[in-house]
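so my prof wants the structure for this chain in the tokens format not the other one, which i didnt know existed until like an hour ago. anyway here's the sequence
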Amino acid sequence: MGLWGVLPEEASSVLIKVLVASLMVGLSMPVMAEKRSVASVDAPHKAVSKSKSVAAKKSITRINKASHRVLSQKKLVLKRHAPRLTSLNGMPILHSSMALVINQEDGSVIYAKRSSVRSPIASLTKLMTAMVALDASLPPDELLSITEDDVDTLKGSTSKLKVGATLSRKAMLHLALMSSENRAASALARTYPGSTPAFVAAMNKKARDLGMSQTHFLDSTGLNAGNLSTAEDLAKMVNASYEYAMIRQFSTSQSYEVVLDDYRHPIHFGNTNALVKSDTWDIGLSKTGYISEAGRCLVMQARIAQQPVIIVLLDSQGMHSRLGDANRLKQWIEAKSLRAGRDVAANKLAKLD
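here's what i got, hopefully its the right format
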């Protein structure tokens, strides 16, 4: 009958469970042994890996420290060789080759840099163009048309005013001053009594009358590099131009739109001097200029630190360097005025003591 036949049913069941349990334990023993074996084999590798990780972290730390030292040295070098905003005597360092700032009320010089050196003046010319055109007292509403004679063949500059475009003399003057429109300035000279040669002669006479002894004009636009002057002479021209209300208004207006018969939409023109849009500036007159021979030029009448000043900047290199120079001068004048005010207050207090 065998073992199963002589054992009670419950005992058989218990025996079966014991045998199954024993079998499972027997099967698990090799697996546990294998795990212990693998663990014992991996232990040296883990130790080595941990050691490598520590070494790598130390290496990274050393690299970071070295990089920090290099960056610190670079910053020190850059600081030593960075361009100074002011010279050793406290005067602002400008990018313009020639410059002059004078007090408009008494003519005293506030800042000067090679102010007697002659240089091409580009479209600063148009301030003289405007004065001569206004002095002629020609009808401001008379219509003038752009012709082929007004097209720039010297520098090849472009214009929004196509040949055939017709505007009033007043509008031509506005565009010449605000947007430095060369064709508009040419039309003003061409339609002058005696045409362009007589107009240029009147420009040179006006310069002599103003005491601009180092100034000479060859055209009304400033495209000709033979239009020469100095910062000192140009300060006289700006001062004289400031007496014309229309020049003050047109040269500082931010934008202007004109309507032409052959155009579907009005043509928008903007001011070539971005500073006229700044809330931090009080500008009464403005004119920019540029040809390669003249560099970037800028003249302004402005009120800085409660005083009217005339600023002349010539031959500035870089698209925005003349604006940067103007801002540097403004900040320097304001700081200088503030220090002077403190000194006066301190002296008053000292006297009271």
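also thought this was worth mentioning. Residues 1-12, 18-41, 77-83 have pLDDT under 50 and may be disordered.
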